[in-house]
Amino acid sequence: MSRTPVRTMVRSPFVLVVGVILTWFVAAFLVWPNANLLIETFFPGGKFSGRAVEKLTSSDRAMKSLFNSFLLAVTLAITTNIVGVFIVLVTKYFDIRGARILWFGYATTFIYGGIVLAAGYKFVYGESGIVTGALLGVFPGLDPNWFTGYFAVLTVMTFATTTNHMLFLSSSLAKVDHQTIEAAQNMGAGTFTILFRVVLPMLRPMLFATTILSFLTGLGALSAPQVLGGRDFQTITPMILTFAGSPTSRDLAALLAVVLGVATILMLAIMGKLEKGGTYFSLSRVSTSLARQKITNPLANAVVHGVAYVLFVIYLVPVVLIILYSFVDSRTIQSGTFSIDKMSLANYGRVLGHGASLRPFLVSVVYSAAAAVIVVGGLLFVTRILSKYRNWLTTVFEYLLHIPWILPAAMIALGLIMSYDHPNPLVGTFVLTGTTVILLIAFVVVKIPFTLRLLKASFASVNASLEEAATLMGASSLYTFRRILFPAVLPVAAAVLALNFNSLLDDYDTAVFLAHPLFQPLGLVIKANTDGAASLDARANTFVYTVLLMVITGLTMYLVYGRATATGKRRARLRVPVPVSLPADEATS
Amino acid sequence: MHKLSTIVAVAVSSVLMSACGAAGGAEDPSTSPPSKGASGDTLIVYTNSNADGRAEWLHDEAAKAGFAIEVVGQGGGDTTNKIMAERGNPVADVVFGLNHMYFSTLVAGDALEPYEPSWSGDVDADLADPSGDGNFWPLVQQGIVLAYNAEVFSPEEAPQNWTDLWNDERFDGRYESVEGLGGATTQLIFAGILDDYKDPEGDLGISDEGWAQIEGYFEHGSTVVPEKDLYLRIAEGEVDMGQMFTSGIPSRETEFGVDSEIMRPEHGIPFAVEQIAVVKGTDQAERAHEFIDWFGSAETQTAWSAEFDSMPVNKGAIANADPAIVKFHEELKQQEIDWSFAAEHIASWIEKVELEYVP
């Protein structure tokens, strides 16, 4: 991890080739289109316009929404980490009864999100919700709209955004060496001392990543504040989206987006500094896999069990309601008056009834899978270089790769159109607009920062001594990559792949501008069929599409992550023998 | 040996990485020629009028008439932005369904190709392109109204004008107000309200009194509830009235069991007129013209109206349409609005409202 001069770094052909391709990709698809858009926006006709700053600073609403977004980002980064760490510990670390069942409850956030998730929580805690009804029975004076505003938004988003913890923190936890825990126990440390002094510090790289992601989620909050925020707690993203859609107001959208982007970059820089300060891998030479810890204090044990099951119910109820509601008509959904006899398959018949209705699913699956594979595959190489060599050049690239976090997806799409609707030397004189490629490029671009963050955290937690050993034994860099590093980061890579795939499935913001007319993805079809102004069936259709997406994303998570968990034992076995099983010819050549 | 494996590594990684870029389309079933996005003979039709089976119906009927078309549907604002963004290399051949305000934006952006359809003599010229250049032509019309619960107000007690809503205490908090001016229906209503307060000296062409009306609208309204229909809120007694488009009323009355009536201001109500036009830069201008001639014809519009309960513009189609729909619309008085003024300012109005008035 020591600093490597640029001159030394580029001597490696592997670095050189990856570097050349990376430079081209970053220049052509991250820097140029977005710079183009920002220049056009802030320098209309070649002259700088400070209009946006003036307009926004004089708007109370904009300033208040901006403040709310930051408030949400900071608090969400804390609350999500608390809940996220807790659910990871009860499912993977502590010895809790029914941990597997609990895991399935907590994992419901993998398969749904956005407006439907917010609506799901509203069914439970909203004015006509079950919990509100029960509470009114106990406290008749309660305001039926008690579940609105900052508190409601923060609560829902906290539970909704623990996906990263469930996937990535669990994976890091599995790598913790049990011997360190045993050593601490032998020295007389208690359950919670071990947890806070030994285990959690080893999870720091991944906790940094999840903190950044939670911060970013809070900053970009859209649907939860819209559904539950009420008049007092609106955030900035709805305003950004409104302005991004209007050519004359785009400078306001860009400025707001840049403000959020700068905050994100600052957050990254701070986390980067913190990250450099520590050692994150086990120092023991032979690691043994983690065994579940009993909580020795009976009271603490009971409390942890209780909280775990309460959370389980909180996580599960909205999903169950959404599935049930997908079988009733729009009116019942909107009024929240559910009963069994109103259920029918009519909604599903309407959505899936005509012959062409499966095609958008297929188009979206192909696009999302291709983009997910390309972005994870490519960034495995890139992240490897970025985490091995630390110098000014890799730092510059690391920041450049975060550009897609600065701008909303719709503006990235506009930048691509603006830059490639005419032959451009950067892409070999092809015109990209109107082709099937441009949406794929946009999908890859928007997923780069998320993928990079998590892969980087994953590389950081690989035990460096393994790599050293392999290098000392003469393994080539590719061999080391393939046999040592790749297996170590594979669980995270697979999970990122699945999450990228899932989140691209119903993309609307980029597809609306870039989709080829003959290959229209699912997001456009969903939007057309769920737009409230158009039709009375819109609400019911939303729930049907959500359930259908749940089925696909659930299947994806099972294929990728479920199997990765199943092979956990094999991984543990692999981890130790790999360095010693180097084939003689390779090792000695 | 060591060197060789490095070279292999380089080759593999370069193949993998290059997939990110130019060769990325290889995973897709087809990679169309890059020059023109649309495919071969298929006409690409952009519209916001695609929901509830409209896109499928149009696709099938056009095929019967000999047109291979692909309908690309999204909201009015998105469709307009998309055509504007694609001006450098247009994908669409024909656009229809947007109201005249959106079309005026497209005209201002030089994104349309003027064409006079064969049925231009059968439509009311007042509903077409106000510039008289024939950039776009009307297909379907509907009124943009305030619908109120007829059980709560008699026509005499009901508001007589939009401004009554926030200037009369009786209606305080009883009407649904929107969260911004993004929607097409809302934009037409505000264009209608602000039209009375034109002032060349005022901010964005509107007098201070006019902006006070906007402030009043947001201050005294009951904000729209996401995921909850206006008529459901009326049925549950949360509000008594709100904005609506005339074609949406009959189905909602049935669905939610509400008996509603519409406000009839003296100076009339704004009309949303859905238009059709050729996109500038199409490589199939002739086919596009033939398609427009077919789609706007009395025969096709009669069928469209019968299928989707819309009020046609074509006189031949009006004669054949459902008499109840025709009677209802003929009784509506259309408000005279300076559309070119509205189209010129609407973007800055939206911005101002969003920044200063939305609660």
Automatic annotation (TrEMBL), chain A:
Gene3D superfamilies: MetI-like
Protein name as catalogued: Iron ABC transporter permease
Membrane topology: Multi-pass membrane protein
UniProt key word Cell membrane: yes
Keyword Membrane part of the UniProt annotation: yes
Family the UniProt entry places it in: Belongs to the binding-protein-dependent transport system permease family.
UniProt domain ABC transmembrane type-1: residue ranges: 66-271, 361-561
Subcellular location: Cell inner membrane; Cell membrane
Main localisation: membrane
Organism: Tessaracoccus antarcticus
Single biological process term from Gene Ontology: transmembrane transport
One CC-aspect GO term: plasma membrane
Keywords for the protein's UniProt record, in alphabetical order: Cell inner membrane, Cell membrane, Membrane, Transmembrane, Transmembrane helix, Transport
Transmembrane segments: 12-32, 66-89, 101-125, 145-169, 206-224, 252-271, 302-328, 361-387, 399-420, 426-446, 484-505, 543-561
From TrEMBL, chain B:
Keyword tRNA processing attached: no
Gene Ontology molecular-function annotations: thiamine binding; thiamine pyrophosphate binding
One Pfam family cited in the UniProt record for this chain: SBP_bac_8
InterPro entries: SBP (IPR006059)
Keyword Plastid applies: no
Coiled-coil intervals, chain numbering: none
Keyword annotations of the record: Signal
Gene Ontology biological process terms, A to Z: thiamine transport
GO cellular component: outer membrane-bounded periplasmic space
Signal peptide per UniProt: 1-25
Protein name: Extracellular solute-binding protein
